[in-house]
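During the reporting period the student researcher (J.K.) took over the structure-prediction task from the postdoctoral fellow and processed the backlog of single-chain submissions. One of the processed entries is reproduced below for the supervisory committee.
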Amino acid sequence: MATKQEIKAESRGVEGKGASRRLRHAGKIPAVLYGAKQNPQNIQLDQISTQLLAHHEWFYSSVLQLNLDGKVQKVLLRDIQRHPYKTILMHLDFQRVSETEKLRLSVPLHFLNQEKSPAGKTVGVVITHEMNEVEIYCLPKHIPEFIEVDLSALEIGDILHMSSLNLGADIEIPALKLGKEHDLALVIARMQKAEVEVAADGAAGDVPASKVAAPAKGAAPAKGAAPAKGGAAAKGAAPAKAAAKKK
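J.K. obtained the following structure tokens:
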């Protein structure tokens, strides 16, 4: 089960873009709290302390203890908006959590023992992580902070899918109910392909005569090149400068 973390918030009665702008100038973040069959509520959080929380992985996938005006309630972060180029948070959405209602949320994957696996010990093998998180469906009390993926037995050519995750009977992966084509790959181990194949029939610059392209029809020979043996002169070509005079 995920560790529950507490964050502090305050109620706010003002709405609109102008009010939100003034809040940000005052070092606050406008936010909204909804769900659990209650009316949405406008709240605000401290900008600096919330930025520090946003650096932690659990902030996005754990049940949070929202201390709103001294009253603590369980919530999940559902959306976060950041400034396009400034290091400030623009808006947050929180959903109230009911212990009796199942939730869908994405949980991060932690890959373990990759270096100890047969594939990880083999030179030239590339191991790619196709997914960094997976969506689950369960009651709040069963939400894991992260899901461990043990790669110690990973062999060359192996592909681990979502269905290989051992989450227990209390946690479901909704995508797996949609069919086999939705059982996406988590990890792929394969040999790295050579980027460039070097020809073995000669050193660089030694090109077989059979590979040399013939000159285009009517094209002048290369500078200093001797004319082809028995070849006819090009149409309209001038006689050689050193041609002998007929006696």
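The committee noted the following: The chain has a mean pLDDT of 83.
J.K. will present the remaining backlog at the next meeting.
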